[in-house]
Amino acid sequence: MRKFILLFCLLLSSTFVSASDEDDLKQIRSLIKNDLSEAKSLALTLKEKLKTSAEGESYFRTNYLLGYIYKEEGDFGKAIIYYLESIRLAENSSADLTEDLISLYNRCAIIYRQFKAYDLATEYYTKGIALAHKIGDQQMINLLNFNLAGVYIDNELYEEALNSLNQNLTLAKKLNYKVDDHYNRIASVYLKLEDYEKALTYYSLLEDVTSNENYEMLGYLYHNMALAYEGLGEDRNHTENLYRKSIELKKQHDNNTILFSSYFDLGRFMLESGRVAESIEYFDLAIEIIDNKTSIPSEIDVYKLKANALFELERYNDAKFFEDAYAAKLNQYLELQENIQDSDKKYNMDLITKRYFDEVAKQERIASILFYSKLISGSLLALLLFTIGLNWYQKVKMRKGIVRELMALKVID
Q1: Least confident piece of the model among 105-119, 352-366, 393-407
Q2: Cα-based distances in Å from 41 to 27, 33, 334
Q3: Predicted TM-score (pTM) of this structure
Q4: What sign does the CA torsion over 261, 265, 271, 277 have?
Q5: Is 211 left (phi over 0), alpha (psi -120 to 50) or beta?
Q6: According to DSSP H, which parts of 136-272 are helical?
Q7: Which helix (H) or strand (E) holds 302?
Q8: Which residues have a Cβ under 8 Å from the Cβ of 232 and sit 6 or more positions away?
Q9: Second label for 16, Cα 20 to 30 Å away, from 53, 105, 215, 218?
């Protein structure tokens, strides 16, 4: 009886967060804001202390916090491992950690998407959505569906993205949530699909719900509307006015880099309209923004387009200079991509996740062996031998059945 009471007390203490553990957890959360290194050190110390009760809620929360800390430090490999361990602990906990689980599924999926592990991202968003539906958490259903649509867009699965976004838009309206992000994302998908009429429909809806003081959003909005009108090939004056309007609005924002796309596209629009000299003015404004930084291909193209404009004006030496600048920027970009690929290899999320689950399976096998070894030393030896014998017989029987099937299919001799 005394042993039973002692065992019950141990189980109880492992399920709930003790006062001292809660103080440590609060201190870790506080340190995260100002000193990640100290927060990590304290969390690792607490994790070591709680190892003996490794199924308790304190242990779960410590792993969760470590996942967050490593993510903030940019060590995504360790972050995903601690998040996955937190999920395993939450799924097996006697405490109700459903809301934490949903949040963890979302956090894992975000990292998987960042490193292009799209199947895993989809899997974890889907798990989160199912669990959010189970408890009726409409806010998380809305967020996770929106994020899942982003994965579909990255994969160029535009129809799936639109289905997800439209369902979510209906939910957002029902709950009186903001819908501007939904309108913007749906419109951008239609723009990618070159369905310019539908893109403009949703951009118009976005315009209706966007504040006049939101200069950045309105700047992007009018820029994208200009792209859609340009795609339709109608009313070139209106298209140009929208580009100019986007520039004026973006100028109201502190970050001048957001002006690049409008300068670039207005310059390209003028070059294609035969207004070569005017196009160079806007190419120069775009180049001024990106000249001293490593650029992505869509930005690097501005050097090529300016070279083409100068060539049309028969300024051949100047054209050659910008052709060379284009080539140099492109080489710089390719070198950067090699470094990024090396980083992606370091964080091969599919492999890291597989190794985690392999390790979990290994630890479960070890725990099972230890359990049976303790059982052997007790009075239940006969029962154990019977169990092992029955288990062995079933496995042999199953294996023989599999072997016969494989032989019939000529998979093995």
Answers
A1: 393-407
A2: 12, 14, 38
A3: 0.77
A4: negative
A5: beta
A6: 138-154, 158-174, 180-192, 196-209, 215-232, 236-250, 260-272
A7: helix 297-312
A8: 196, 197
A9: 105
